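Hello again,

I reread your note about wanting to compare the complex against the isolated chains. To keep things tidy I'm splitting this into two emails, and this first one only covers the full assembly. Below are the input lines as submitted, including protein chains and any nucleic acid or small-molecule components. They are followed by the predicted structure of everything together. The single-chain runs will come separately.
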Amino acid sequence: MIATLLHTPLFWTALTIASFLLGQRLYQQLGNSAFIPPILTGIVLICVTLELTGTSYQTYMQGGEYLHLMLGPVVVMLAVPLYQFIHAMRKEWLRISLAVSLGSATTVGTAVVLVHWWIGDQAITATMATKSVTTPVAITLSEQLGGISALASAFVIVTGVFGALLIPPLLKVTKLNQPQAMGLTLGVCAHAIGTSRAIELGTRESAYAAMAMTLTATLHAIALPWLV
Amino acid sequence: MSGLLILLVFLLTGISVQTLLDLPVPGSIVGMLILLFVLMLLRRTPETLQSTSRVLSPLLPLFIIPVSVGIITQKELLNEHGIALLVILAMSLIPGALVCALIMTKRSDP
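Full-complex prediction:
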């Protein structure tokens, strides 16, 4: 019976939803700590289950496909917050555009150069270019750029966790921790995970982080395909 | 439900435009930009789109899990380069964060 279940696509769909909900519960239990994003718990639980049952990724993906399908509409949906942010940032647009474009170019540029120099693999380099973009966009982009989408999402999540961990103390030490600087930097460098860290810091921080995250994702999605 | 239909229509439009013009930008991004343009023309977000966005946004991580699980197919790569990749990801954050924060920091004029 278990063998049949393991080959039923919907079983894996259900298990993915269950792991995500469990991840959310854990996240809330631990006081919404940015270091255990629900998605990370979900991924680890599914990977462990696949390993233990000896199930291949292809078999899993037959069920995962149903959820993966929603990625397209969700990326289109980013237009809704983006529209609101563009409306809100009119007064400071020059400063914000500069910070988003130069800041994200610096972190991505550094990473790409380091990978190229240290590892020298074309596909990994292309994937690394998407690391500062929120995951749904990064996955779509890396497919387009000839990167490895599974790796893209790992890079993005790790960047987010590191960013949420490193950026607040870094900006405090360098005395660059005004709310708008802190929020925007978290959004640009650590996307959604940085944004959830920013929510803990305050409302100004979180508004700037959410705006920066969406702007960075859009900018990179448009610019990267022409550069790589 | 009509919000979801709107998203699908814009997604399909985006994919068609991308194929038609042979753009290197993903179809979903093209769809997003077209929707953004329409919202700017309308000067508001329709209620149905707002409510769909409220429902779907918290579920976003769920839709990303399937692809992310694909990391298990990359074990060899991670064994070989895992540590280097972690170091690169951590180090590359510092210059980017400083540039960002410097630009955003307002100097109080003397």
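For quick reference: Chain B touches chain A through 67 residues (CB under 8 Å).

B.
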